[in-house]
Amino acid sequence: DQIGDAAKKLGDASYDFAKEVDWNNGVFLQAPGSFQPLKALKAIDKMIEMGAAADPELLKKAADAHHKAIGSISGPNGVTSRADWDAVNAALGRVVASVPKQKVMDVYDAVKDITDPKVPAYMKSLVNGADAEKAYQGFLEFKDVVAANQVATASAAATVPTGDKIGTAAKALSDASYPFIKDIDWLSDIYLKPLPGKTAPETLKAIDKMIVMGSKMDGNLLKAAAEAHHRAIGSIDAKGVTSPEDYEAVNAALGRIVASVPKQTVMDVYNSMAKIVDPSVTNNMFSKVNPLDALSAAKGFYTFKDVVEAVQ
Ligand code: CLA
Ligand code: PID
Ligand code: PID
Ligand code: PID
Ligand code: PID
Ligand code: PID
Ligand code: PID
User: Fold this and answer.
1) Alpha-carbon distance 50 to 54, whole Å?
2) Which atom of ligand 2 is nearest to the CA of 219?
3) Is the ipTM of this complex over 0.95?
4) What average pLDDT does range 262-277 have in this prediction?
5) What CA–CA distance (Å, rounded) separates 90 from 79?
6) What Cα–Cα distance (Å) separates residue 56 from each residue in 65, 192, 209, 306?
């Protein structure tokens, strides 16, 4: 297709730049400017809306392309192979083309809003500037091909199951865990701190397992889960906490996407996360909330998971 051909040209223009970026640099965990959690949540919300509007099949292929690309990483900078670099660009170009232009621009504008204007120049200073310019020229040509293949309207909204066992169980889970949710400091910057003692390649292994799980999920249910998060963001209070109803809808939607993949795929995520999250991190989280609320939430979760497993 045209986007695939254009991605090869983009690769010619941008792979030198890709090789020069230090993908393992811890700086990419930082907010791209001053820390503004509610504004950042707005930007994430725009990404969620874009994801929910995208073609689920193309999202799945983009996840597969990222998984494959992680498999061909080499060298100290963490760069993927030229072929996989092109394949990721092509897959993302197709995702972008499956969404109306305005949804893409909404992400751009919201990200710009939380990005210090000095950040791009700083990023450029870390690589060969001429290669960055060459990559950007390539991107400008690529985006015209994407725009020429872009849909005018978003794909249909997801169909949300009703009266299913997971929906019923989500009510009980939410009742048991909403007090815990209210105890958590959602506006803290602690969630942007590096995991103690872990390198980027180690962390990427766990993310890879999530990508694999995402790729296996039912596309309609994943879209429904994204829509549920978008609604939940719409009902947050000043402390970032969503309403009980929207929280319940998120739990139901996540339970359904978990049930749509094999148990082992979920356990692969859990086990890889357990390898990188030191118990001190979990204990620190626990120390900041009412322990009884956390234990009630945990009990609710362990009951909920049996219902999920039964329909998995
Ligand atoms: Mg989510 C999970 C935040 C968007 C899909 N997500 C999580 C949690 C964290 C979070 C609260 C990971 C850390 C953790 O396990 O804490 N997500 C979060 C934010 C946003 C977002 C702030 C921004 C909008 N997510 C989002 C989107 C999607 C997902 C758009 C795609 C539709 N997210 C997704 C999945 C999962 C998460 C599939 C998880 O599996 C993971 C999670 O919650 O695992 C348990 C602990 C969790 C909480 C504090 C909240 C849940 C409370 C449960 C139901 C009960 C608590 C049990 C116990 C006390 C603690 C967990 C024990 C552990 C051993 C399992
Ligand atoms: C400017 C001035 C003009 C010239 C110009 C110009 C530049 C415009 C630009 C630009 C626009 C632009 C847009 C970019 C958009 C990037 C979008 C990224 C989206 C990320 C998402 C992430 C996610 C997920 C995911 C799916 C999940 C939800 C999420 C489901 C259902 C200024 C040059 C024209 C770069 C969507 C993918 C996992 C949130 O106009 O004169 O330069 O760049 O998890 O959804 O699972
Ligand atoms: C524009 C203007 C509107 C019209 C429009 C428009 C276009 C927007 C577009 C577009 C946005 C867009 C985005 C693309 C992004 C591509 C990103 C590619 C990333 C590849 C990576 C590969 C890799 C890896 C990996 C992880 C490793 C690092 C690597 C570590 C720690 C402008 C059309 C709406 C194409 C990251 C995955 C293995 C490098 O908005 O008017 O057209 O395209 O090895 O990580 O090692
Ligand atoms: C300039 C002037 C214009 C021309 C121009 C120009 C240049 C702009 C530039 C540039 C922008 C730019 C951006 C770059 C962005 C790279 C982003 C990389 C992200 C990598 C991540 C990696 C990671 C992980 C991971 C998970 C870990 C955290 C991490 C935990 C909990 C100035 C040329 C347009 C290079 C996210 C995945 C392992 C961080 O605009 O005239 O030149 O470069 O380790 O999670 O640990
Ligand atoms: C233990 C001991 C026993 C008792 C027990 C026990 C506990 C087991 C547990 C537990 C397992 C467990 C699993 C959990 C899994 C969480 C998985 C999260 C996945 C997140 C993903 C994120 C993403 C995306 C997304 C889609 C994108 C890709 C991504 C596309 C196509 C130890 C109690 C049984 C919590 C997948 C969603 C946006 C990466 O066994 O004695 O306690 O918890 O962007 O994909 O867009
Ligand atoms: C298990 C054992 C195996 C069998 C199995 C199994 C089950 C795994 C499961 C499962 C995993 C799982 C995960 C669930 C996670 C739910 C998470 C809910 C999060 C809700 C949030 C709501 C909100 C917001 C929001 C953003 C705001 C904060 C809030 C800010 C900054 C165990 C079956 C495989 C259900 C985060 C979105 C508005 C609070 O593996 O043997 O069954 O379920 O307002 O952010 O303000
Ligand atoms: C313990 C002992 C057992 C019993 C038990 C127990 C407790 C475990 C616990 C607990 C685990 C736990 C986890 C918590 C996790 C909270 C995660 C919150 C994530 C929030 C995010 C918010 C954000 C943003 C956002 C984007 C911004 C950055 C942020 C930028 C660029 C010990 C009870 C099981 C509470 C990610 C989205 C706005 C950070 O196990 O016997 O008690 O709690 O602002 O992006 O700015």
Assistant:
1) 6
2) 31
3) yes
4) 98
5) 17
6) 14, 29, 19, 28
| Mean predicted confidence (pLDDT) in 83-94 | 99
Q: Which atom of ligand 1 is nearest to the CA of 228?
A: 32
Tens of pLDDT, residues 17-39: 999 999 999 999 999 999 999 99
**Ligand 3 proximal residues by C-beta, below 6 Å:** 18, 23-24, 66, 69-70, 73, 78-80, 85, 88-89, 92-93, 96, 101, 104, 142-143, 146-147, 150, 200, 204
**176-238-43-103 Cα dihedral, nearest 10 degrees:** 90
Ligand 7 atom closest to the Cα of residue 285 is: 43
Q: What confidence score (pLDDT) does residue 155 get?
A: 84
Q: Is 211 in the pocket of ligand 4 (CB under 6 A)?
A: no
Ligand at minimal distance from the CA of 287 is 7
